[in-house]
Each structure stands twice: as C-alpha cells, then as structure tokens.
Write a structure and sequence with these properties.
314 residues, globular, 7-stranded mixed beta sheet, alpha+beta, binds fe (ii) ion, binds 2-oxoglutaric acid, Jelly Rolls, 32% helix
Length: 314
C-alpha cells in the first residue's frame, strides 16, 4: 500500500522497503503477518454506494459562445463543489486509452516519469510511442483546463503555462495487485495531490474514493472518461475557491487495477501566491511545499499539506 503520494520526485511510502506501487508480495506478507483482520463492516470500509462524478462534455468548448461559457462554468463549479469531475470528448482516443492499458498489463512495475523524458524518448518502440501520444494530449488537456480555471478566477494563466514545464510535469502508471485483505487495505492511502491539477484515467475495476460533504464516497468508473482533480496548488492560488479534495484507492480483492495519472506541477522555484486578497495562505515556493510534505511524511507518517501554510489569523 502506498502512503500519501508525493508526485514530484520519488514516492514516499508507508513501508520504505516496499517497491512502488504496492506489489502482491507486500500484500502477501501483510496478510501472513496479520493474525486478525478488521471486520468487513468496520465503518471506515463498509461497502459504499458508487457515485458518478459531474460529467462534462468538452466538445462544448468548440461550439458557440454560450455553449463554451456554460461548459467553462460547469468546470469551475465542479472544481469548487467537488474538487473532482470527469470529462468526455477530451481529445484522447479510445484506441490510445486501450493501448495504454494493454501495455500496462505487460509491465511488472509502475512508471513514474517526467513529460520531458517521455517526449525525449525515440518513439521507436510501441510502448514509448503510445505513451508519448498519451502524454502529449493529456498535457495539452491539463493546460487547457488550467487556463479555464484561471480565467474563471479572472486571471490569464500565462503563469501556469510558464511554470509547468515538460521537465516538471509527471505521468505515473499505477498497478494495484489484487489484495486478499480488501476492502480493509488501501491501494493508496488518503491524500491530496501536491500539484495544480491531476488528469486521471482509471480502468473499469473501480476503487477510487473521495471525500464529499465530509463523507467518503466511491467513484463509479467510466473508462471512456478522464477524471480531473484539483491539487493543493490550485486551492492555494484560488484562495480556497477550488478544492483539493482528499482521495484514496481501496484495493480489489480479486482483480488487478490500473490507472494513469498526469500531474501538472510547476518548477520548484515557482512562488504560489493567492490571486485574491486577503490571502488564506502564506506565499510559498513549490520547493518549500514539497520539502515540508516530505518532512511531515518522514516525521509524522502523513502529509499535512496546505494547513501548514495558513496565515496565522486563519
Ligand atoms: O489510482 C487512482 O485512481 C488514484 C491515484 C492517485 O490518487 C494518485 O496517484 O495520486
Ligand atoms: Fe492522488
């Protein structure tokens, strides 16, 4: 199982000796060591209803002015109310999504790789050309959504374009082996993402859960859609207008699960400052933020995140 992920560098894990992502061996060891497992009706893990995330059709962005504006409003509203939404007609073909999954099936490990490394690959083998196509389109999508979210706050987002570079954005392919202790075991521990926003593709297995109105809910998988979630940096920049919401992955008892996440991250020297005054958070550089997260995970075992950077009156 993975701890709160730090997408910007090496992963921070609950068990530093276990590889990234959770391998079957890790689960087996835990399972064997566990004399007593938590009952399945333990409240935290009781079976929950699957909810569909707000679904936004990005085709509308290419229609007339009023359709485009209403689509942008939907994006901003979902980012405020849910911190999560799903998009269709996102520009990534079903063939590419399926190819990515098929290729993931043949890998034994997870990949965590910067966009510049992907784009710098020679593209000769099948794997890198699919990954390259996916990464190129997904990064354009992330930028487009970031532009819309900035615009809805009354700002032009040159800032994000200039600071989120191919060398600072990451693609991670996650593989979650079946886990006999599911649903008591997390594939990824509850966390928020330390980026501006994340574009996630999950397969049909399900397991992603998020907090909505103080309760954990399970996300109904839609393999045709891409899930977008707001990260801590957008929450800080928007002064809490957009929400970086806690989420986790519960492992599946029988089936392997795959997901791909693209993290829109700036360079470490980028200063994050609220676009509205009075600001809820102090100014901080992304490097400082990342360092604080790593320190907290190391010392406390979990990430504190944005509350560390609140201005004293809050
Ligand atoms: O695999 C998933 O569905 C979620 C992954 C995730 O939250 C992350 O990598 O930050
Ligand atoms: Fe995440």
């Amino acid at each position: 199982m993975m701890n709160a992920p730090d997408h910007t560098d090496q992963r921070v894990r609950m068990d530093e000796s276990s590889p990234d992502p959770p391998f079957q061996e890790t689960y087996k060891t835990l399972f064997n060591n566990l004399t007593q497992t938590a009952p399945k009706n333990f409240p935290q893990f009781s079976v929950m209803e699957e909810i569909e995330l707000p679904l936004i059709d990005l085709n509308k962005l290419d229609l007339g002015d009023s359709e485009r504006e209403s689509c942008k409003k939907q994006i901003a509203r979902a980012s405020q109310e849910w911190g999560f939404f799903q998009v269709i007609n996102h520009g990534i073909s079903v063939e590419i999504l399926e190819k990515m999954r098929r290729e993931q099936l043949s890998w034994s490990e997870a990949f965590h790789v910067s966009l510049s490394d992907i784009l710098g690959s020679d593209g000769l083998d099948n794997l890198s050309s699919t990954m390259e196509q996916y990464a190129t389109t997904v990064s354009e999508l992330a930028q487009k959504l970031a532009d819309i979210l900035a615009e809805k706050m009354g700002h032009k987002s040159v800032f994000i374009k200039e600071t989120c570079l191919p060398s600072t954005c990451y693609l991670r392919m996650n593989r979650y082996p079946p886990c006999p202790m599911s649903p008591q075991m997390f594939g990824i521990m509850p966390h928020t993402d330390s980026d501006f926003l994340t574009v996630l593709h999950q397969d049909h297995i399900g397991g992603l859960q998020l907090v909505k109105d103080g309760k954990w809910i399970a996300v109904k998988p839609n393999p045709k859609a891409l899930i977008i979630n707001i990260g801590d940096l957008f929450q800080a920049w928007s002064n809490n207008v957009y929400k970086s919401v806690e989420h986790r992955v519960v492992a599946n008892e029988l089936k392997e699960r795959y997901s791909t996440a693209y993290f829109l991250c700036p360079s470490y020297d980028t200063v994050i400052q609220s676009c509205i005054e009075p600001s809820v958070y102090k100014r901080f550089s992304f490097g400082e933020y990342r360092q604080q997260v790593q320190e907290d995970v190391k010392c406390l075992g979990y990430k504190i995140g944005l509350p560390r950077f609140l201005v004293p009156s809050h």
